Amino acid sequence: MVAETVLRKTQLIHPLFIQEGNKLKTEISSMPDFFRFSPDLILKEIEESLKLGIQNFILFPQIEEKLKDKKATLSYKKNNLYLKMIQSMKKEFPDATIITDVAMDPYSSDGHDGFVENGKILNDESLVILGKMALAQAESGADILGPSDMMDGRVGYIRDILDKNGFSDVAIMSYTAKYASSFYGPFRDALGSAPKAGDKKTYQMDPRNAKEALLEAELDFQEGADYLMVKPALAYLDIIQSIKQNFPIPVVAYNVSGEYAMIKAAARLGWLDESKAMVESLIAIKRAGADIIITYFAKDFAKLNLT
Ligand code: PBG
Can you tell me which atom of ligand 1 is nearest the CA of 104? Predict the structure, then answer.
C-alpha cells in the first residue's frame, strides 16, 4: 500500500540478438540463459514475450566478419539481415514496439561505432553513414531509432533526415550519457563487435564525469531527442536521477550485459538469490528515475507477475 516505486512490464524493453540462418538458437557464453536467434526463431521469441506482457524490443545484429568493411556499408544495404528482420516483425506483430540500434560497430571491420582513419574516429564523416543507416531503418518500419554511437550532433542530423523523408513520426531514443564501460564486455562477445584496436573513450563518456552528462542531455534534447538514455544503469544511478530531474522527456536506463552477467554468475555459484537480486536492481533503477528499462531480465521479470 505504501510502496513508492512501481515497475510495470510495459516499461521494459527486451533486447534481441539476431544471427543469419535458420532454426538457430545460440546461448551467449558470458550471458547464461540469453540467446542469439536466427530470424525465424526471433519471431517465436517475440510471440512468447508478447504473451508474457513484454511488448517493446530493441534489435542488435551479429554480422559475419567477411561482410564487414571500414564504412559499415552493409548497415544501409537494402534487405540486409537487420532490415529484413524489422520488416517481418512489423508485418507479424504490428503492435510490438520496434527500437533499432544506430551505430557502425556490428558492421565495421574496425569494430568502432564511427568511421576510423589513421587510428582516429572521424565524427562528421560518421554522421553521413549513420544518417543512411537511420533512414534505411525508418523505411523498413522501425518505430523508434536508437543511436548508440555517441558521435556529436547525430540526433539533430538524423532528425533532419527523417523529417525530410516523411518520417516525422519515427522517434529517437538517444543514448545520451553512454559511458566507456567495462560492463559491455558480454554484449561484445554476443555480437563479435569489440574494437579491433584502441578503445571507445574518445566518444563514450568518462565514468568520472557527471556534469558532462547534463551537457550531453541538453544537446540531445535541443536536437530533438524523444527519449534520453543512461547506460550502464546500476553504477550510474546518480546520472539517471539528475537527468530525470532536469529534463521533461522520458528517461531510459540500459541495464547492460555485464550487469546481467554479474547476477547470473553469482547466482550460479550459489552466492546470490538470482530472482531477488534481479528485482531489487530493476526497482533501484526505476526508483532513481528511469521511466523505461532495457534489460536482459525482461522476460524473467514478467514471469514473476509482481504487482
Ligand atoms: C554499441 C553498443 C554497445 C552496447 C549497445 N550498443 C557496446 C559498446 O558500446 O561497445 C552494449 C549493451 C550491453 O552491454 O548490454 N553500439
Answer: 16
